[in-house]
């Protein structure tokens, strides 16, 4: 495989292309790819549970939003935060590991203001894949919960990952304002014809009923009528009246601008080139549980990083075989699997211990999170 100047683009070697073509030859357009075992050379060496943290790579933008007393300005800051995570991606066209059932990933954050953040994710379903996640910063009164339910489909010269699911951001210190966010889709294009490349496309929304605001975002994909990559166009509107207040334009991998529709003033909303990713604090693998992402996939990751595709393939097969055997054993014993850390009610996953968290007492909440999720 060869990466070219655009890091979202890659040229496959002959052997890799043959393997991919053999798989494609078994598919029909529109077919779901959830049960297709993909070759390891297209894998990004980390689990989807960890990949989700890219959306929290710049949490300072969200902490700034909480400190803003103006609801409209606060809403814009949440939109900025949401748009800040898409530029972080693997070089070339890669997809993260599909987490195994019951897999978890957890990490902590330390912020300049002295507050702490806690992220915890669990794979609550394998077929169909559902990843649930929880983030909290008790000192700032911030809670994020959500789930990702990707569905992959073969579309001929491209493959699409439809990013079903949603995120709920709760600002408890702002009268429990809730921001509901949906995701755009991901595409691998040029599989058969042209150069294979990665794109984000489709519609996404950020909505806050308490602020009476909604942002509609349209992530553009390339095509006959649109040749520029990584563009996004959005509008912030008043929910109650439909009045357009702001327009957003630019590239999600570069600079984005926001224009007030009343006075026509345009300002820089986001420049991803000057952002610094916040460090994840993760326990060393030897201290992790067997079902924690980095430890679970450790041998696959080591092989991929060493360029040893044969070993990576074998270790990936070992993980998949163990998962099949565990499923067969449950079926034989007539046992059903249920998530350890998240509950499902009305099609919404919530952390089981969340109702017991006293978010009005930051130290007490931090202690309970650490004792329940990080021991």
Automatic annotation (TrEMBL):
GO molecular function: sterol binding
Pfam families xrefs: Oxysterol_BP
Source superkingdom: Eukaryota
GO cellular component: cytosol; membrane
Entry-linked InterPro entries: OSBP_sf, Oxysterol-bd, Oxysterol-bd_CS
Family in the record: Belongs to the OSBP family.
Name listed for the protein in its UniProt record: Oxysterol-binding protein
């Amino acid at each position: 495989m060869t990466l070219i100047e655009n890091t979202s683009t890659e040229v496959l070697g002959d052997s890799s292309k043959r393997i991919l073509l053999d798989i494609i030859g078994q598919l029909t357009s529109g077919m779901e790819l959830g049960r297709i075992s993909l070759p390891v050379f297209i894998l990004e060496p980390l689990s989807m549970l960890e990949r989700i943290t890219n959306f929290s790579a710049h949490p300072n933008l969200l902490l700034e939003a909480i400190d803003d007393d103006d609801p409209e300005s606060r809403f814009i800051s949440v939109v900025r935060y949401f748009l800040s995570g898409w530029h972080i991606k693997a070089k070339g066209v890669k997809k993260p590991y599909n987490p195994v059932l019951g897999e978890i990933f957890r990490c902590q954050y330390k912020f300049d203001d002295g507050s702490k953040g806690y992220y915890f994710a669990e794979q609550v379903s394998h077929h169909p894949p559902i990843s649930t996640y929880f983030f909290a910063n008790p000192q700032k009164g911030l809670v994020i919960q959500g789930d990702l339910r990707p569905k992959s489909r073969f579309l001929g010269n491209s493959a699409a990952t439809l990013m079903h699911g949603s995120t709920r951001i709760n600002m408890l210190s702002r009268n429990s304002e809730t921001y509901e966010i949906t995701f755009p889709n991901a595409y691998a294009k040029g599989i058969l014809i042209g150069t294979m490349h990665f794109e984000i496309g489709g519609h996404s929304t950020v909505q806050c009923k308490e602020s009476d605001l909604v942002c509609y975002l349209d992530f553009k994909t390339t095509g006959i009528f649109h040749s520029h990559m990584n563009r996004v166009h959005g509008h912030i509107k008043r929910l109650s009246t439909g009045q357009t207040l702001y327009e957003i334009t630019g590239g999600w991998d570069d600079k984005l601008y926001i224009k007030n529709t009343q006075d026509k003033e345009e300002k820089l909303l986001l420049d991803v080139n000057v952002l610094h990713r916040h460090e994840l604090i993760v326990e060393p693998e030897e201290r992790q549980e067997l079902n924690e992402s980095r430890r679970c996939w450790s041998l696959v990751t080591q092989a991929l990083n060493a360029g040893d595709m044969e070993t990576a393939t074998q270790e990936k097969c070992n993980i998949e075989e163990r998962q099949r055997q565990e499923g067969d054993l449950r079926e034989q014993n007539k046992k059903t699997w249920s998530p350890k850390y998240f509950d499902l009610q009305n099609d919404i996953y919530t952390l089981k211990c969340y109702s017991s968290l006293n978010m009005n007492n930051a130290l007490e909440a931090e202690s309970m999170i650490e004792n329940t999720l990080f021991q």
